[in-house]
Design goal:
DNA-binding transcription factor activity; Arc Repressor Mutant, subunit A; single chain; D-Maltodextrin-Binding Protein, domain 2; LysR-type_TF_proteobact-type; 3-stranded antiparallel beta sheet; LysR_subst-bd; about 300 residues; WH-like_DNA-bd_sf; plasmid
Length: about 300
Amino acid sequence: MARQNVNDLIAFLAVARERSFTKAAARLGVSQSALSHTVRQLEARLDVRLLTRTTRAVSMTEAGERLLDRIGPHFDQIEIEMDALNELKEKPAGTIRIVAPDYAISHVLWPKVKSFILKYPDIKFELLLDNGLSDIVTERFDAGVRMGEQLAKDMISARIGPDFRYAVVGTKSYFGDRLIPEKPQDLTQHDCINYRFPSSGALYVWEFEEDGHEIKVRVDGQLVFNNIFHVLDAALAGHGLGYVPEEIALPHIAEGRLERILEKWSPYWDGYYLYYPSRRQPSPAFVAMIEAFRYRA
């Protein structure tokens, strides 16, 4: 098969799997126009339309679906075998793509990655932020990071962080003459900064606990974000009460920029886990990462 044909098929596979020329172009490191031209050339050479393009989406024709099903697994196997060649090297090497929430990247993954890459200079990382529940198989990530309670049963997982909890915080200027909440239910009388889940679109219901009993409070306010650090920024600016991971709030509490309330009501939650599909044989680089990232109390 001519080299150009192989490159054209790789381009088609990227668009078919991403369902987007923009995302596929970013993954392949080419321009969107160049990628579109390559796919059109492939369609012209095969004399069959593979993709249906609209202004909002890309879908596959019957011929496109068939081509994806037939050649996709073969290209995946080639990629696996290429990765396996790293086993012959003296040092682990390769690229590891991980998708994780904002807080997990900044406070759980990054502290581990920055020391790991010094020890293994031939291993590269792509850390992609996604606060939704991404399908790592469909989106072709090597691994994802989720809290223990969110793990899918068909995944292998390794704990990479301790239990943690959230903190309700606000500024002195916000509290002013307002009554300070003494119990979670009092939050309904305050301006609270909401967090919206990207995957479901639902607003996070603030969770508390008393004597082993769960308490959930639906709060309201002027602001909604889907990034926990934006919630923290808004709280620091005095726009309401935020409910954020304790670790990112503690420095501001210590320096007097924020005040914490309802601490005894905030429960500890299961920490973060790195998870990955069981069907794929881990590369030496991946195995080295798992062992280095594993949480040891």
